[in-house]
Write a structure and sequence with these properties.
By secondary structure, the chain is an alpha/beta fold. The protein has two domains: about 130 residues, 3-Layer(aba) Sandwich (Rossmann fold), CATH 3.40.50; about 60 residues, Orthogonal Bundle (Arc Repressor Mutant, subunit A). About 45% of the residues lie in helices and about 15% in strands. The radius of gyration is 18 Å and the shape is globular. Strands 2-1-3-4-5 form a five-stranded parallel β-sheet, with helices on both faces. Helix 4 links the parallel strand 4 and strand 5.
């Protein structure tokens, strides 16, 4: 029996995962973490838990930090569960430890269930989509060059949202400020990350600084 921690800021994704986990006999406890501080607090209480992490929506600054957390809690197992992850990130994390598994949110119910069952048994699972990419010659990450003109990468709305993200505002805060739905802002956020070839807020903020969207004197990376 294992405890599971869902580290994801997407409500519909969390609800779906809660439903799947609630039907698994090997699951003793299901917790939620909305940020890194809550995740660390939960891991201190449950150091052998399985963490289901949407890295792209979480405040972990990079593969290095994720690997440090895994090393700090060596009995944990991690299931990376996202819409999109770069190959460079996946290679770095998956090759660092067998504690990391990966399944995409677009995967079938059967594949996601298999990933959960493997994590419970401390077995690595890599979904077919990622396995094929890692094994193919075309599996390298495609990152847009930072020298490209900003107006060729992002729309005016995306620039405004990127600036808000870089200032530290959450998706919910941006949605309230712009009088838009959470899901609209979340969709913009995913598009921004995809266009810039980044996985998290830290990387997006560095891009915003290099592009002059935010003032370097106002933010510290």
């Amino acid at each position: 029996m294992r405890a599971y921690i869902i580290a994801d800021n997407q409500d519909i994704s969390k609800a779906g995962m809660m439903f799947l986990l609630s039907r698994q006999k090997e699951v003793s406890l299901i917790l939620e973490a909305d940020n890194k501080a809550e995740l660390i607090a939960a891991l201190r209480l449950h150091p052998t838990a399985v963490i289901i992490l949407d890295y792209t929506l979480f405040d972990i600054t990079g593969a290095e930090e994720l690997m440090v957390v895994q090393q700090r809690f060596k009995e944990t197992d991690w299931l990376l569960f996202s819409d999109e992850l770069s190959m460079s990130f996946l290679r770095q994390v998956l090759f660092s430890s067998r504690a990391f598994s990966v399944v995409m949110k677009e995967g079938s119910k059967e594949e996601i269930l298999t990933a959960l069952q493997c994590a419970t048994r401390k077995e690595r699972f890599v979904c077919n989509h990622i396995s094929n990419l890692l094994l193919s010659n075309n599996g390298s990450t495609t990152t847009l060059p930072t020298t490209a003109p900003m107006d060729q990468l992002l729309t005016a709305t995306e620039k405004v949202i990127l600036k808000a993200i870089a200032s530290g505002k959450t998706t919910k805060e941006i949605a309230a400020e712009k009088t838009l739905s959470f899901h609209t802002i979340n969709s913009h956020r995913k598009n921004i990350f995809r266009k810039l070839g980044v996985n998290n807020v830290h990387e997006a903020t560095k891009y915003a600084m290099r592009a002059g969207i935010v003032d370097l004197t106002e933010y510290y990376i």
